[in-house]
Every structure is written in structure tokens, then in C-alpha cells.
Amino acid sequence: GAGVSQSPRYKVAKRGQDVALRCDPISGHVSLFWYQQALGQGPEFLTYFQNEAQLDKSGLPSDRFFAERPEGSVSTLKIQRTQQEDSAVYLCASSLNSGGVEETQYFGPGTRLLVL
Amino acid sequence: SQKIEQNSEALNIQEGKTATLTCNYTNYSPAYLQWYRQDPGRGPVFLLLIRENEKEKRKERLKVTFDTTLKQSLFHITASQPADSATYLCALAPSNDYKLSFGAGTTVTVRA
User: Fold this and answer.
1) Beta carbons of B34 and A42 less than 8 Å apart
2) Are B102 and A42 in contact (CB < 8 Å)?
3) Scanning every residue of chain A, which has its alpha carbon at the shortest distance from the alpha carbon of B43?
4) Element (H, E) at B5
């Protein structure tokens, strides 16, 4: 079956530009996660949704970062006024139920963002 | 502050040998530890989970150990194959919680 998909796969933005990154989770998955992965590092947690509710946004690095999942399926991560330090791969993951660690998180391929 | 450290150097091994990767942590008491595989340009793929009360877990050619006294997990790939070449990430969670903390990963290259 279809896995988690993300678009675009690559995005080049000029500093100060707003970007929107899309995640299509596995159909029927309740939990959705966003991670940021800098070059040579592991993923870092950004935010967590259960259906349409954003239950945890503690990892969002600044108020320029905003995520939504209005209908409990597709999610969008928006970054306003991008800065060079925002350059990273943004990964989306979904899991079937509540997202506890005993549940497998399925990752998408990521969106590589380069801010010039 | 919490720290998760994996082998800082990449691992290059001959096909058929066993690759052993380490994941050490400090200022952390994880109840769960996971290992993932990540190929270039792709997202991580879950491999194994081990709980704090489990010493060892196996899955096919993979073996994971978890020593809460040493604050260390070892990940073994036995009878390694070139297709095992990838970056391997460990991830820790303090309880049955969704929030994972990842190490930086170790890149393994298996030579034919």
C-alpha cells in the first residue's frame, strides 16, 4: 500500500520567503509527527498531531514555524520568513493509533529545504 | 542535558563479517530504545524496539542489547551484506510516549 508521501521533495527559498511543506500520511493513521533533520544529525521532534488536534508543539524552534492538520489527514508545515538556519530535511511520520513508542512510526522521504 | 552518542566514525566492514554499532546515553533514563535504518534521500525505517527490562532482542540477522547500567545499547548485523550499507539511528523514549530522541547515526558500508 501507499506509504507516507511528502511534497515538494526539494525546495529552494530565498531568505525571508514563506514556504509550505505538505505531508500525506498513511490513510487512517491517527498520529502524525514532524521532525527536522540537519545534515549529519538525527531527526529532531517538532510537533505531534492526534487527528486534527495538535497535542504537542514543543519542538517548533520559533514562532515562524506553524503546523496544521485541519481534517485529521493531510498536514502542512509552514515556515514564515525563512532563515538560512532553517535549511534541513523536514520529515513527516505517521502511526496507526495514539503514537506511543510501541507503535511503529512510518516516515516519509522528507522535504529538503535550502534557504539561500 | 540529555546526550545520545553513536559511533562517531563510519564503519567499513567486509561482507560476511559482523557490524557492531554502539548507542550511549547520559542524563537519560529511557524505558524504550529503537533502532532505525536510513538510506540516502529517504526517511528512517523502523527495525527493532527493546524495552528497559529486556536484555536482548533478535530479528533475522539483527541483534540488539540494552544495558541500563552501562547506559548503552549495542546493535549487531551478522553475516553482513552490501545491501546492509546505510546509516543506522538509535532513538530513545522515556516511557510509552510518542516523543523520540534520536542519535546522529552511524554510517555502515559493507564491502563485497
Assistant:
1) no
2) yes
3) A109
4) strand B3-6
Residues B45 and B37 sit within 8 Å (Cβ to Cβ) = yes
Burial class for B106, CB neighbours closer than 10 Å (0-12, 13-18, 19+): buried
CA angle A75, A14, A41 (to 5 degrees): 60
Which stretch of DSSP H or E encloses residue A20? strand A19-24
In single-letter form, the type of residue at position A69 comes to: R
**Distance (Å) from the alpha carbon of A67 to chain B's nearest alpha carbon:** 17
How many angstroms separate the CA of residue B33 from the nearest CA in chain A? 9
Pair type for strands A75-79 and A19-24: antiparallel
pLDDT in tens, A45-94: 999 999 999 999 999 999 999 999 999 999 999 999 999 999 999 999 99
Cα separation, A54 vs B98, in Å, equals: 13
At A5-41, the pLDDT tens digits run 999 999 999 999 999 999 999 999 999 999 999 999 9
Instruction: With CA atoms as reference, report the closest residue to B33 among B6, B61, B11, B1.
Output: B6
Cβ contact B96:B31 at 8 Å: yes
Backbone angles phi, psi at B50, to 5 degrees: -135, 140
The grid coordinates of residue A95 equal 502511526
Could you give the CA distance from residue A92 to residue A100 in angstroms, rounded to a whole number?
16
**Given a cut of 80, is residue B96 above it in pLDDT?**
no
